């Protein structure tokens, strides 16, 4: 296979100025036989108050489902000890994980995730690697600091995760929105923008391409290939933020027989059904992939990983040495023990189970939207991935549209407040709108009054029990009916 392309010209001023830490370079002698190591402020593990950590987890292959209550027959007990001799093979003893440690992440966990990445993405070049982070939010912050300098511009989806956008703005970086439709980024709009660009072009494209937050859209393989070709042509790096990648589902249907029959039967079918990632298309090493356990295990574990070419990841490591130091030791030990116990096969079984759970949750949410929301003013597209769905409203049909200055955002605010008064919160779409302009500014699209007056709200089917999900959507729908004079 090929090696990656040298993209070091995209590094930020901060990343270029980082030097290797001389203290970190001395750690290669730590625990070396015959070496008395007096070089670092590492407290003796005798002083760590944790001798053993025990956790109960479900046993693979999860025949009763991933959400089944644990019983003696379907659970596995993990024990992670301070003393390495009391642990199983490939476990990370607490004496090591609770110490200042590997900035890249504990080797056993890194190796598991590398093997997992090979299986799913089949990275088409040789010199790639994995480093651990403390979740995708921190990974994104580190990515910006590694590639962007204050005053630079980056490309983002027209609607994007508001916290990710704020991370950009706080660093003085300009966001350039790329037009989207119900299926994600429009490659032709991106191409037109870049072909007309004047001056230094954006270094990065930030995309949540699977189960997009907030729209729930999923970028097709063809569109991903088109975007990747544009990255090659215009020399930018694609940052795929993919916490929802494994929450991919089959197409929504109201047919109960079809619902009962739809499921994948094998690991091979599961992997084949996944939309190809940008990483799987990356022959040049111009994709930085951000992965996380937040949506498939638990967000409070605060552990993620970054995949990319080794030369670029080395700059991330230099940043992490003086920021996060290393991922959480307790999380590393517990996650690693869980994954080692399940193995690659068991972890795949878990992901398949999570897929099934989210498919059912999505169905319940969309059924409720179908049942309760007024079709006269409402439209929606059932998502095929992720945690989110959107419901779109025609603001121009609001009975007080003229009194509200024919301003769709005022209608959005009225619906939001009415939803709250009925006892259900959904998030207004305008909260996720990216701002910024290209150079030169793009001419406005032909005016489409219908589209101009459309507003949407984002909901999730991940946060509450299904009966509460359904009743909550019924309450929000009542608020919509009240606002539109249909109640």
From TrEMBL:
SUPFAM superfamilies, A to Z: PLP-dependent transferases
Subcellular compartments: Cytoplasm
Gene3D superfamilies (alphabetical): Type I PLP-dependent aspartate aminotransferase-like (Major domain)
Cofactor(s) named in the record: pyridoxal 5'-phosphate
EC number: 2.6.1.57
Domain of life: Eukaryota
GO biological process: aromatic amino acid family catabolic process; lysine biosynthetic process via aminoadipic acid; tyrosine biosynthetic process
Record has Cell cycle as a keyword: no
Keywords carried by this UniProt record: Aminotransferase, Cytoplasm, Pyridoxal phosphate, Transferase
Annotated GO CC locations: cytoplasm
Top-rank EC class of the record's enzyme: transferase
Stored InterPro entries: Aminotransferase_I/II_large, Class-I_PLP-dep_aminotransf, PyrdxlP-dep_Trfase, PyrdxlP-dep_Trfase_major
Reaction catalysis annotation: an aromatic L-alpha-amino acid + 2-oxoglutarate = an aromatic oxo-acid + L-glutamate
Family listed: Belongs to the class-I pyridoxal-phosphate-dependent aminotransferase family.
Full protein name: aromatic-amino-acid transaminase
């Amino acid at each position: 296979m090929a090696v990656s392309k040298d993209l070091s010209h995209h590094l930020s001023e901060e990343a270029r100025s980082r030097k290797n830490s001389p203290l970190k370079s001395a750690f290669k002698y730590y625990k070396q036989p015959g070496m008395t190591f007096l070089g670092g402020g590492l407290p003796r593990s005798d002083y760590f108050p944790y001798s053993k950590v025990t956790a109960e987890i479900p046993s693979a292959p999860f025949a009763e489902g991933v959400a089944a209550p644990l019983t003696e027959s379907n659970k596995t007990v993990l024990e992670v000890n301070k003393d390495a001799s009391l642990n199983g093979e490939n476990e990370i003893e607490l004496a090591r994980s609770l110490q200042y440690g590997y900035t890249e992440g504990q080797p056993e966990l890194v190796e598991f995730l590398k093997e997992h990445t090979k299986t799913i993405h089949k990275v088409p070049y040789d010199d790639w690697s994995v480093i651990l982070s403390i979740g995708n939010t921190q990974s994104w912050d580190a990515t910006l600091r590694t590639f962007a300098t204050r005053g630079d511009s980056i490309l983002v989806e027209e609607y994007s995760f508001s916290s990710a956008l704020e991370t950009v703005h706080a660093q003085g970086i300009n966001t350039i929105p790329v037009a989207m439709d119900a299926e994600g980024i429009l490659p032709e709009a991106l191409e037109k923008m870049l072909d007309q660009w004047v001056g230094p072009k954006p270094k990065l494209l930030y995309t949540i391409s699977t189960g997009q937050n907030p729209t729930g859209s999923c970028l097709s393989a063809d569109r991903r290939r088109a975007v990747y070709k544009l990255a090659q042509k215009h020399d930018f790096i694609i940052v795929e933020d993919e916490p929802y990648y494994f929450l991919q589902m089959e197409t929504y249907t109201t047919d109960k027989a079809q619902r009962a029959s739809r499921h994948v039967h094998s690991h091979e079918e599961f992997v084949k059904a996944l939309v190809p990632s940008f990483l799987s298309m990356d022959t040049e090493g111009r994709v930085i992939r951000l992965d996380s356990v937040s949506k498939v295990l638990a967000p409070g574990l605060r552990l993620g990983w970054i995949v990319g070419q080794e030369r670029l990841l080395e700059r991330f490591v230099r940043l992490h040495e003086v920021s996060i130091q290393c991922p959480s030791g307790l999380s590393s030990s517990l996650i690693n023990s869980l994954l080692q116990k399940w193995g690659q096969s068991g972890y795949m079984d878990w992901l398949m189970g999570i897929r099934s759970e989210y498919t059912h949750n999505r169905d319940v949410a969309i059924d409720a939207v179908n049942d309760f929301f007024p079709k006269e003013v409402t439209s929606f597209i059932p998502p095929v991935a992720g945690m989110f769905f959107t419901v779109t409203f025609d603001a121009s049909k609001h009975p007080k549209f003229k009194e509200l200055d024919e301003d769709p955002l005022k209608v959005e605010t009225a619906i939001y407040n009415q939803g709250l008064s009925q006892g259900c919160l959904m998030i207004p779409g305008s909260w996720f709108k990216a701002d910024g302009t290209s150079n030169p500014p793009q001419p406005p699209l032909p005016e489409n009054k219908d589209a101009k007056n459309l507003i949407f709200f984002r909901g999730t089917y991940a946060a509450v029990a299904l009966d509460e999900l359904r009743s909550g959507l019924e309450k929000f729908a009542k608020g919509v009916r009240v606002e539109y004079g249909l109640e």
